[in-house]
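Purpose: get a first structural picture of the assembly so the mutagenesis plan has something to point at.
Setup: two entries, given in the order below. No constraints added.
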Amino acid sequence: MDLVEFPSLSRGTLRDMRIAIDGAFREFTRAYGETLEQIFEPVEDFLVFLEGLLIDSPWPIVIAVLVGLVYLLSRDVKISVGSFIALFLIGVFGMWEDTMRTIAMVSVCTMLAIILGIPIGILMARSDRAQGFVNPVLDLMQTMPSFVYLIPVVMIFGLGKIPGLIAVVIYAIPPMIRLTNLGIRLVDPDVLEAADAFGSNARQKLVNVQLPLALPTIMAGINQTIMMSLAMVVVASMIGVRGLGQPVLNAINNQYFTMGVMNGLAIVAIAIIFDRATQAYGKRLQKHSEVVHG
Amino acid sequence: MADPDGIEIKHLYKIFGPNGQDMVQLVKDGMPKAELNEKHNHVLGLNDINISMPGGKIQVVMGLSGSGKSTLIRHINRLIDPTAGEVLIGDADVCKMSRTELREFRRHKTAMVFQKFALLPHRTVMKNTVYGLEIQGVPMKEAEERAARWIARVGLEGFEDNYPNQLSGGMQQRVGLARALTNDADILLMDEAFSALDPLIRMDMQSVLLDLQQELHKTIVFITHDLDEALRLGDRIAILRDGAVIQQGTGQEIVLRPEDEYIADFVKEVNRGRVIKVDTVMDRSRKLEGGITIPHGVMLEEAAKTFADTGQSEANVVNGSGAPLGVLTVQDTITAMVTPAVH
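Result (structure tokens, whole complex):
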């Protein structure tokens, strides 16, 4: 018996299988593509609106609002001034519009990730069965090369914002879900027992105890989600998402070194602004845990 | 004031494991804890507990770690479900309540204080204290007014806006106590409430509790591993070992007549002068003409102090209206205070 050659399925069988599956999927796309597109339309509308708002408003107002938001979150002058300088330089070097597109994209992706991720995380924390089911799916989402799931997404939605959005959310939502789950599971059982002893119902326990105590971990999840959506911007540009990713892609294809570095640095700058602002906000929420009494 | 309901615990069993129900009969037939664990992989938590906890009094449940005392107290508000048995409060059997009934019962009838305080770290002292009322749906303004009273009563006035982390252990447990008292429940469950505190602060908290109980007359169940604490606080004491009650009674009964070697070992080191009352030691057959008097019900230590202060060697023990009940001598006092040689 030949043990060197693996007894794989014959080439013909494999081809037939591929054709069958691809065909079925194409059928599915034809039948439901439009419906799915309609479902995502409000999200796209919102993204377009936000993009328009950021691009069409006078730049001083946009900078003022963005820096103001950073200050509101962080209450830190240094971070706010840093954000101002970064945004200003981005404008000076002609990347304002692309940057605004990317900010809009990342904001919407993060919102979607939070809206979807926190409930899933809560569900996972409540039920070991849900956790057993969701965990492998998250593993898949995190390790599957993003180009692979871009194929069906593009088949359904074509090129444009929505497939980009979906690709980014798939990539960025796992930490949100995982850290919400983890945060709730790590809540001190003694405190939970106390909540039970005083007659809390499930909702009261969630709102009064589990979510507030899990908040630092959840904030870390939000932070990670933002970072990962920014990391996906370049990949998303391959399926037609405009923003800072496109010039980077362009630079890669044409070996425009300076253009690549400049846009890359703009992504880094936004990442740092987002990161510092959310981290400082998370820390501020935890003021009560500062031990004053030894 | 009418005393609140007591707590009747009848034939309570708790066996941890997947088939606890099936194991009850084995335990009833006398299978010991070790054998149950070895042969059937089930852990015997509580074994046929029968305690009648008097209303309006402090019932102490004492035992070393692993004796099942914390498991027992969690059966009173059913934080742990029993395997078999009844926990009766008034006419209601806690073990038979539905989820909703149980929640209402926990909200209105019981309040609990925990060994590790179990405060909400993200809430201020005030917001922690109102927690029980908030859960009940009491309007926040009223809840805060009621809470403020108890915060002041436990001596935390001025700390309302502090976070638990900013307070010392003793102060945190005062918050725990205020939170429980604000609930205005008849039954107060205290699970090793003072065990995590320094000895001095623990004494202090015991005094706070005794003071409060003088006016509140709640039914208090107090869990402890510390015999001195048990004797100081307990109107009645039940001693638990390996999930079973091995002796119950007043502190004095336990000190004077320990049921077995285990308890005798326990009570050996106790300051008997603070546990035994003059009534136990006095000679009821005699009455003195004149001389000093000692009110009945005081502890021997106090009587000894009276003897030392006055230089007398005999005194009349008198009841509330001053009528003599019997005679106490210095000799008898000292004899009773000294720990008898262990057999």
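The mean pLDDT of chain B is 89.
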